[in-house]
Hints:
The protein is built from 3 helices and 5 strands; from the N terminus they run H-E-E-E-H-E-H-E. The chain is an alpha+beta fold.
Amino acid sequence: MSTIFQKIIDREIPADIVHEDDVCLAFRDVNPQAPTHVLVIPKRPIVSLETLADDEAAIVGHMALVIRDLARQLGLAEGGYRVVVNCGADGGQTVDHLHYHLLGGRPMSWPPG
Ligand code: AMP
């Protein structure tokens, strides 16, 4: 069964898309935890960092550059921002499709909950 993020990739459900290229898609989180909260996902159906294959390193490398550029475009670069990947049950992952949270627009605290 396809995940909700696969349905967004396939345009079966709508999303507020802020970036798309051959490798990844970025869209605004439907339940934002900061003034700016964007999810960046690979188009390839990678479940999590745990299942990332050695030959998929270029995909996450590309996504890191997309996150860098999005942070600049969305006005986060100067003030700073946080990038989060939840992995598995203890990590708090709720959607089984790898995703990077890009959060910004307010000061972040540490440690995370
Ligand atoms: P995680 O808990 O790390 O798996 O993050 C999943 C994220 O997906 C949560 O922040 C949700 O708010 C977000 N989310 C779930 N469904 C949608 C959707 N249809 N569009 C945008 N974001 C979503």
